[in-house]
Amino acid sequence: LMIKENLPVYLAAWSVYFWVRSKNWRVSLAGIGISVLWYLATMKLIIPYFSHIPAGSYQYFDFPELGQTPEEAIRTIVVNPIYTANVFLHPAIKQETLAIMSAGFGWTWLLAPWSWVAAFPMLFEQFLYNLPSHWNLLFHYAAAITAPMVLGTLDGLGWLTDQVSRFKTLWGGNREYFLRWFAIFLVISTLGLSVTHRLFLT
What mean pLDDT is predicted for residues 60-87? Predict the structure, then answer.
């Protein structure tokens, strides 16, 4: 939590994911509570004290389409979600980046909605931030998002194999056979995307 001021938001989202996956609501609520308290202490007390900037001034908060403060941004996201989605997806480079990242995992992480909860703060920060270097894969900003995508992929594959096992006529009801061919599909799609992305960059 002391590494960066946005980590409490990440921890709160991961706590919700942990709540759903483990059913341990006590640990999850503790994580959410600690995240909220640490975020408020960091933004209202610690950073203003050491930077000599008055509380309420956010020097590096650069989300002009949403608001000048975190409170204004949250209000915009809640009150005007369609406008927020439009900012999130445009310009088109944002859509390309999100598609390339998702396709690299065979899109299966999208089959695990609770992994979206863990990914949302990272995705929002990356694609709503007013800095084009956040919107592509040339820098490190997208690296953290791969964590919930990996977990979502595992959950998504688990759901897919369960569905396959219910239909005996499909793949002969053989999970291993299905997973073998799906792994081949992932390798081919990832290589294809890598080549396409490289051609796009050049």
Answer: 88
